[in-house]
Amino acid sequence: MYHGPRETIIWLQNLLLKRGYLLSLFSQQEQGWDPGLEALFLRRVLQERHFALLASCTPKEPANARLLAELADANVRVIHVEPYSGHALPAESFIMPDYKRAGYAAVATLLLRGYDPIFYVGDRKSAAPFHILQERGFLEAQRELLGGDGERLLFNGKNREQANFIGYQSLSGPSGQKMARALKKCRPGFFCAYQELAVKLIDILRCEKIAVPEKAGVLAPELIGEQLSTDILAQVRFPRQHILARAVEHALADNFTGIRELVPPFRIAGNTLSALDSGKIILPPASLEALSARR
């Protein structure tokens, strides 16, 4: 089960072929993340007693937790890769990107580069797992590094000192221009829920003569599908092939003992942050305690 680019699927197939295994693929992207179609695939995996399942389950309801449990009980090695519930980690084995750490790293990076105030740009009603976790990490970083209360506060154009959230609806038409003008006298930083939002935001800022990255910094997560060029957008990046390779190694190990691991982002790459070209190593939260002292 996967929803990444074709190149990654071919790479994964070749990796398995070298070890004497074939890949049966269920494309979430092609099937529209449909829980019913996912259930049909999982039943087939159960009936045919496949050796292992690299799970990338839909976040849509109804969830197929019962089928996943049946697979694990039938000794199919179930390892979740992504995505997953925003409220609980899977009961089965997992090795997945830690989107919460990505949100934390985004705030720390924007602070280190002198941007202030800092906003999360997203959908207030989104239930997508990576949206939920990114925002949690973002708010946690603001609480720990800036002394905030860790609560979301929508930017209304006048409360920039307290606000930390911009809804994607605010980027449309006159609302986007008004938002940009209200931030013109400061040097804001933005972490966007996904890449399309970031591109739209950069266009709005530049139309209002707010230079990126000189006068505003913009970050977005590297998602699992097709990526924008880092010449256009700075991205929080995960070692995705490394994650898949580790999942394969565990799935094919002589003694499968399971794995429960969240993999932090390993760098931020791109040209929409100051003094950032080919990438910077992201410091873990423990290494960023000095930031709180300056605030």
Please tag this protein with its features:
295 residues, alpha/beta, Rossmann fold, 2 domains, four-stranded parallel sheet, 9 helices, 36% helix, disordered C terminus
Structure report:
The protein is of the alpha/beta class and 295 residues long. It folds into 2 domains: 6-98 and 239-263, Response regulator (Rossmann fold, 3-Layer(aba) Sandwich); 99-237 and 266-294, Response regulator (Rossmann fold, 3-Layer(aba) Sandwich). 36% of the residues lie in helices and 15% in strands. The chain has 9 helices and 11 strands. It has helices at residues 6-17, 35-47, 65-73, 99-112, 129-146, 173-182, 195-207, 240-251, 289-294; strands at residues 52-55, 77-80, 93-97, 118-122, 165-167, 189-192, 217-221, 234-237, 260-263, 267-269, 280-281. A 7-stranded mixed β-sheet has the order 5-4-6-7-8-10-11, with helices on both faces. The protein has a 4-stranded parallel β-sheet with strand order 1-2-3-9, with helices on both faces. The radius of gyration is 21 Å and the shape is elongated. The termini are far apart.
